[in-house]
Structure formats: C-alpha cells, structure tokens
C-alpha cells in the first residue's frame, strides 16, 4: 500500500471542494491569493492531515478433504 503524501488544496466558501492537490503550502497560498484577487472573496488553504482507508481482509484457500461420509473441510 502506498504511503500517502501531504498536500494542500484551496476552497472557496459556498463552493465545491477543491480538486487540485498542491504539493506545497506556498503553492496553495499563491493559488488562494490569485483566486481571491480574481473573484473578490475569501479562499481557504486546506492541509491534508490524515487519511482513512479501507484495508481488504485477507483471503485464504482451504483444501477440501474427502471423508468416508463425503467431503469435509
């Protein structure tokens, strides 16, 4: 399983969450300032602090043995 990488994104209040993952805080800050200037409203710089992910359960293969009364595990 891959080790998650820290990233930042920019969010404008009342809008859909950002989809661009900026590799540095500075890159996200620059983008937030550009968006604020162009749209005349506030934009937040959001930092990824953790991740929740599902881990697949292990799978096992069991051979079936034949008994005198039929098959059994």
Structure class: alpha+beta
List the helices and strands in order.
Answer: EHEEE
* Computed Rg: 25 Å
Determine the mean pLDDT. Answer: 88
> What is the topology, as strand order, of the major beta sheet?
1-2
Quick one: how many beta strands?
4
Largest sheet: 2 strands, antiparallel
Helical stretch tally: 1
Shape: rod-shaped
First-residue to last-residue Cα separation: 32 Å
**Percent of residues in β-strands:** 15-25%
In helices, the fraction of residues equals 10-25%
Poorly predicted tracts of residues: none
Describe this structure as you would to a colleague.
By secondary structure, the protein is of the alpha+beta class. Helix content is 21%, strand content 22%. It has one helix at 25-39, and strands at residues 8-12, 43-47, 65-67, 70-72. The strands form two sheets. It has a two-stranded antiparallel ribbon. The longest helix has 15 residues, at 25-39. The model has no long low-confidence stretch (mean pLDDT 88).
